[in-house]
Amino acid sequence: MSIKELLFAVADIWMVAVGFTYGIKFIRNYRNYLLGIEWIVVATSGTNFLIYGLLKAGHDSPMYAFAYFLDAFSRSVGITLILVLGLMKVTHRYKPSATVDVGAFALAGVVGFVLSTYAEEIGTPGKIFYIVVNVLTTCFLIYFSKRLWDIGERGHAVWAGVATACGFLIAATYDFVHIPGDDAEHTIFYIFALSTWGLQMFAYYRAYRAFDAYNKRVDAPAVTGDAPVTA
């Protein structure tokens, strides 16, 4: 195994570990199925991608088609609309119904299937669509980071901001930039991409946890009738 392949495996394992660990925690600790399931979807995609890479399976492999679908799933609706709706649970006290949860993932499945199955027919408009939804999501994540800063969670605000900036850079270059010296499978690009996606899930979970704790501190006086509780 070359150093490049080793770095790819490490970056992928990092993303998979973060996705499964914090996806389960989102569901178990916060009943946030939107973020929890999406984190698990990303981790599942990473697991499939890791096996695909280690086996050096070809583009005719079912694993490649599955990876392509999961990639489209998350880039179109998963780490865009679903991410925003999930984070709104702490930023806006939004409580999505089961219908919204199911509908969001159904939409992601349909859009992901169309964009992955008919990628060649759709062509450039599909790639532009990914960038547009990422820009819109980035605007919300900047707002999310600012809200963290305003409530005094400045460390989490900085990390969320850094993760968002890195994620935007990856999304902007995904389909349009080839790193000089990279191979046909874009291994170098994916080392950066997988590391970034892992960082995003890690930073957003910790930021969400801090925001949720702040909300509970704010709510405490209303429940107990006492003065504001400090951490």
UniProtKB/TrEMBL annotation:
The keyword Transmembrane helix applies. Keywords: Membrane, Transmembrane, Transmembrane helix. The chain crosses the membrane at residues 6-24, 33-54, 66-86, 98-116, 128-145, 157-176, 188-207. It comes from the Bacteria. This is Transporter. It comes from Nocardia rhizosphaerihabitans.
